[in-house]
What does this fold into?
Amino acid sequence: MTSLVIAIEGPSDTGKSTLIDGLARRFSEVDPLVFDCYVDHAGGDDKVPALADTREGQAEALRFFLGIEKSRYEMIGEGERPKLVLMDRSVFSLLAHSYAVGVENSLPTLDDAVGSVSTAAEVIIPDLVLYLKASASTIARRRDPSDEGRWFTSERFNGHINAFYDGPVDQCGISTDIRRLDASRDAGAVLEDATRLIVESMP
It folds into this structure.
């Protein structure tokens, strides 16, 4: 059996975890395999590399996260393959992050990341990417107060993430179906749209 792999992408506070929880319940009859985001998989903020603003630092951070990708890849292959896999972030997050770092620091980090991802033997390329895009005011309203002022909540940085999905993602040479969802809406409406797209993708 081949697994259908769905990646939920988008800046922080767009509702990725809420959507994944809803999808896991909606598709509970197939017992989906759910992957936490990279930070949670690693064990928390203090277990992952800090934001790098150099080409070398970004390359080192990417190697770390590709190590998590390898772990995810191996988990899918253990035992009977699941019918459905739900991923909180995927290699597309790594590429988008590399793009944003590159724009901020005038570095070719996206090219570096594409090379690393495309040559890695054990990465998961999702069949369908659901990209959640929400307005800045919606994100600010949903944000945990403890995250205020952190780099991943920066409107400027997340603007680069959104820009990646408006063009550069298509130049990365990684073929997948990317659908954009308006995450400024009620979570229930986003869940309904996501469910429909997943059902349409099922064999």
